[in-house]
Design goal:
mainly alpha, Arc Repressor Mutant, subunit A, Four Helix Bundle (Hemerythrin (Met), subunit A), two-stranded antiparallel sheet, 10 helices, 60% helix
Length: 245
């Protein structure tokens, strides 16, 4: 596992994410294969240059997203199979979250514009029902993980409305939590309170309304703003081409 020095206090909110991301990359790269035991919190903390508390938070985050499991009295083990995102060549694409957002910013606005031009009312009605469920969870702090999953599902279910199966499949891969579980972790980090969760629902609703009215350029712009806002909330203070600390 690659080591790094403890970041300044200003970056404290994201330290555990950086450690979790490093561990997940090591798992995906085969350093810790499925079924293997992970090092102890203290060892990870020393390697990463963070406190034991930060290391514990990273382990907890990975446990929440299903990448590892804790066997009490025995240690922490990697779940199988290893987490991977399939690339176009069949090779693993262990994309970092900032790369996923950047890719989505280039693709999803185009997909959204096409969806507005090729209206699929049945699919749009299904997406609207997802938003109703997401809206109902805005005030439920204990259900943030489900809220995040619904938010990603909004994008995955909306994409096929563009009428291009290849583009829809690309979007589906980019937002697929099962193939890139840290994505859910990072999204959850960007939605710490009711106001941020309500903002996401409102943005989703605005995008869907524009698509439903056939306003392709407006829908495209709203999706660009939505993903740009997500990028800013997740990586505020981080350099564009480096993982969040």
């Amino acid at each position: 596992m690659t080591t790094h020095e403890e970041e300044p206090a200003a970056g404290g909110q994201r330290r555990y994410l950086a450690v979790a991301q490093t561990l997940l990359s090591a798992i995906s790269g085969g350093e810790y294969p499925p079924g293997s035991r992970l090092p102890a919190h203290s060892e990870v903390a020393a390697q990463a240059g963070v406190s034991r508390a930060t290391a514990r938070e990273a382990f907890l985050a990975l446990e929440v997203i299903g990448a590892i499991e804790v066997r009490h009295g025995d240690g922490t083990f990697v779940r199988g199979p290893a987490v991977r995102v399939g690339g176009v060549t069949g090779a693993a694409l262990d994309a970092l979250p900032h790369e996923l957002v950047e890719t989505r910013l280039r693709i999803e606005p185009v997909v959204t514009a096409l969806a507005a031009q090729r209206l699929d009312r049945e699919r749009l009605d299904g997406v609207a029902r997802l938003l109703e469920e997401q809206q109902a969870l805005v005030h439920e702090a204990k259900d943030v993980a489900r809220f995040v999953a619904l938010g990603l599902e909004f994008h995955a279910e909306l994409a096929p409305a563009c009428g291009n199966p290849l583009l829809a499949d690309i979007v589906s891969q980019l937002v697929n939590v099962g193939r890139h579980p840290l994505w859910a972790l990072v999204n959850q980090h960007a939605l710490p309170d009711e106001a941020s969760r309500q903002r996401q629902v409102d943005e989703h609703k605005s995008i869907l309304r524009a698509i439903g009215r056939g306003e392709a350029e407006l829908a495209k712009r709203l999706m660009e703003e939505h993903l740009g806002s997500l990028q800013a909330r997740i990586f505020q203070g981080a350099t564009p081409h480096a993982p969040a600390q």
